[in-house]
């Protein structure tokens, strides 16, 4: 018997309405929102923060944090209005997180005013002041890689989440030498000094990547990409079937900080982004597996341990003119709408973004799909010889006269669920390998309009942020953050 069925929409609505009045009465109740459904009523996004990468582009420039104007009423709509360059070269900015979020809702001493930017390759951690002037962030602090190495014996930091304690926790891919090792850096939420490792005990998983936690169920679950010194230079098929890519969901006891269980999702599956349902009572969620191109639902069983089942499989395509005879879709990012109704994910190689109705979490139903790039477009180097899903190869994606290089990668949903933002860069070494034209042209940010009633995705033809036109030359834009938090940064406890 499998546990963890999602709460009904009506149950969530009742819960939200009971907290809305108190939220309105209290005014400023600390960072974030009282509940996921309260967050859906939050203000429309007007600016976005996006890390932009120059590593592996041949341009001797530091990575920078871009501030993008996305207010349709603004004269600067779809423009980068500020750039904050990092003080070092070759960092590979990647993901970002907050000093505090909805996990600290109710604590009026907390303010969401610092953006945490771990550097995937250099292992530096930048702390950016976005509170003094949200439209012009400034560098606040740099945590040097030597501190990460010596204090934690970790390297290659990836995901940053704020904790209800006020501390900041960052997952890592490996040790300082580039070997695989799953672990977590703990930062002080006020000084941003490294406090040490979050994890305790002698056991640790062989790899790390992303994580999500839920104190109500006394659990943290982390994922595995691969061994840093192997994947760091590109994707080598010879690394497959040698234990160099991840295959596990790793379960941790939230209270004791100990590693207690591994859930196998398949050899070389490479499970990346993991998302619990937003309702903190829900003991289930989804994880996207990149190389195996599958979505697994994970859940707590009646025994009290955790398990996973595959609920979506995107078929590989038989191809000619590519690295391998079978092209996986490469699911590289997933997210869940704040009402826990829709699951979204991107297929970086096939080129489509998908929307699934997850009212029944065990049986997701495809309700929206749009192609916005990818490797299988007509007229390209790849010929599709066998396809279980499409009748023919999609047309090249062109918007405002710009042919988009790369495929859909990072995604971010507006709080109300009506707009899905998409960027096209995965990781500079893999961009260079799979989409060399992306290095030449730079990446883009797109906006998809979402049908939140019946489901459906359409490209907003009036929206395009072209990072190929940057003053320092074309760059690679990655993850997207809103100043007030979003559905991949905030955790309700």
How do you describe this structure in short?
This protein is mainly beta and about 500 residues long. The protein has six helices and 34 strands.
Low-confidence stretches: 1-27
The profile of the biggest β sheet is: 5 strands, antiparallel
What form results from the Cα inertia axes?
A: globular
Number of strands: 34
Helix-strand makeup class: mainly beta
Q: Provide the residue-averaged pLDDT.
A: 93
| % residues in beta strands | 35-45%
Distance between the termini: 26 Å
* Number of alpha- plus pi-helical segments: 6
Query: Helix share of residues?
Result: under 10%
Q: How large is the radius of gyration?
A: 21 Å
Report on the structure:
Helices cover 10% and strands 35% of the residues. It starts with 8 loop residues before the first helix and ends in a 16-residue tail after the last strand. The chain is mainly beta. Strands 29, 30, 31, 32 and 33 form a five-stranded antiparallel sheet that branches.
């Amino acid at each position: 018997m499998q546990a963890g069925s999602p709460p009904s929409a009506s149950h969530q609505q009742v819960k939200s309405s009971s907290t809305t009045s108190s939220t309105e009465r209290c005014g400023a109740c600390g960072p974030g929102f009282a509940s996921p459904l309260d967050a859906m009523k939050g203000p429309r996004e007007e600016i976005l923060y996006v890390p932009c990468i120059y590593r592996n582009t041949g341009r001797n420039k530091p990575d920078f944090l871009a501030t993008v104007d996305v207010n349709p009423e603004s004269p600067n709509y779809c423009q980068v209005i500020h750039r904050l360059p990092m003080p070092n070269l070759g960092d590979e900015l990647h993901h970002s997180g907050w000093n505090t979020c909805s996990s600290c809702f109710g604590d009026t001493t907390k303010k969401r005013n610092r953006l945490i930017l771990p550097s995937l390759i250099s292992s530096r951690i930048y702390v950016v002041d976005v509170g003094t002037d949200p439209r012009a962030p400034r560098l606040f602090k740099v945590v040097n890689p030597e501190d990460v190495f010596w204090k934690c014996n970790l390297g290659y930091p990836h995901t940053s989440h704020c904790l209800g304690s006020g501390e900041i926790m960052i997952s890592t891919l490996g040790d300082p030498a580039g070997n695989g090792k799953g672990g977590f850096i703990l930062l002080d939420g006020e000084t941003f000094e490294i406090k040490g490792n979050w994890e305790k005990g002698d056991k640790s998983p062989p790899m790390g990547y992303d994580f999500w936690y839920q104190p109500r169920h006394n659990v943290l679950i982390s994922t595995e990409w691969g061994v840093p010194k192997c994947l760091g230079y590109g994707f080598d098929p010879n690394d497959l079937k040698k234990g160099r890519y991840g295959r596990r969901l790793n379960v941790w006891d939230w209270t004791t900080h100990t590693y207690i269980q591994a859930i196998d999702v398949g050899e070389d599956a490479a499970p990346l982004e993991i998302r619990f349902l937003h309702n903190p009572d829900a003991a289930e969620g989804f994880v996207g597996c990149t190389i195996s191109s599958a979505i697994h639902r994970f859940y707590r069983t009646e025994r009290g341990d955790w398990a996973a089942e595959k609920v979506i499989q995107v078929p590989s395509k038989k191809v000619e003119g590519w690295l391998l005879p079978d092209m996986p879709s490469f699911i590289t990012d997933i997210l869940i709408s704040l009402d826990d109704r829709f699951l979204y994910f991107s297929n970086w190689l096939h080129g489509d973004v998908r929307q699934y109705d997850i009212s029944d979490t065990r049986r997701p139903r495809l309700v929206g799909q749009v192609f916005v790039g990818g490797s299988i477009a007509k007229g390209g180097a790849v010929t599709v010889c066998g396809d279980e899903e499409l009748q023919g190869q999609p047309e090249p994606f062109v918007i405002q006269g710009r042919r988009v290089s790369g495929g859909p990668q990072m995604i971010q949903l507006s709080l109300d669920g009506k707009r899905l933002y998409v960027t096209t860069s995965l990781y500079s070494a893999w961009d260079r390998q799979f989409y060399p034209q992306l290095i030449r042209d730079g990446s883009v940010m797109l906006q998809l309009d979402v049908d939140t009633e019946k489901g459906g995705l359409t490209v907003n033809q009036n929206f395009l942020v072209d990072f190929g036109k940057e003053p320092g030359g074309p760059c690679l834009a990655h993850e997207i953050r809103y100043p007030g938090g979003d559905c991949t940064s905030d955790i309700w406890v």
